Amino acid sequence: MLDRLRHWRERRFAARHPLPEDAWREARYRVPLLAALDEEEALRLGHRAWRFLHAKRISLHPTLAEATPFDLPARLALAGQACLLTLGWNNDEHLEAFGNVHEVLILPDAFQRRVEEMDEFGVMHEYDDERAGETSCQGPVVVAFPDLMESGDFSGFNVLIHEFAHKLDLGNSLDVNGFPPLPGDIDPREWHRVFTAVWDDLQGHLERGTPTPIDDYAATHPGECFAVCCEAFFTAPDLLHDVYPALFALLGRYFRQQTLARSAGA
């Protein structure tokens, strides 16, 4: 009964608020990640992004709002990149996955947070951490405008995908741990084994003083490892496929998407 009601509401919304196709076309033109989608994927994503904009708040810091135009294509581009993560899932799965997303807050610049961390010897360290984004279980997704503008291509960096990956991670816990809710066809033991192998490899590179195959921020915390790997899966799939093929295949099953072909055609 509830599913039927939800589907009826979706059809009613689509009838009353048709996708602004010109704005979505412009959004895709501006963002290579979206431009690389085939027409069927792009249309499905456009409808989800449009619905996302009506269901969630997109807020600009007052200082930013006064000086920066953020038109409808820009908002659709933001929503499209967020919804790209769940494009391979059905609509109910998509809605459930982002049920903990209520607002995207855009700040003028990177921001600092006071962080407390305990080392392996039990000593507490405090430091100021500069961040491009952050989120929490029921809190807003916060991103810095310059980093948002640098996202959207195949460079391996995307602050929106990173922070929305955290939201997926938070689907079954109050803090990120790199272990999001998994579909029935993925054994949690396999997830743990594959990600542990990546984590151990990253730690080994750091111990040897050699460059890590992906952003070394992945080696700071299991939750960050998951988010950085999600960034790479969508924005540097050729790199992730080459250096961690088992992880790439696992994320392909998790997201139910084939991202390698998109980057090849971009």
Characterize this entry briefly.
By secondary structure, the protein is α/β, with parallel strands linked by helices. The protein has 14 helices and six strands.
**Mean of the pLDDT scores?**
91
Q: Which word captures the global form?
A: globular
Measure the end-to-end span. 43 Å
Count all strands and give the number.
6
Strand order of the largest sheet: 1-2-6-5
Encode the helix/strand succession as letters. HHHHEHHHEEEEEHHHHHHH
Low-confidence stretches: none
Q: Structural class from helices and strands?
A: alpha/beta
Main β-sheet: number of strands, strand sense, barrel status?
4 strands, mixed
Percentage of residues in strands: 5-15%
- Our Rg estimate from Cα atoms comes to 19 Å
Helix content: 55-70%
Discrete helix count: 14
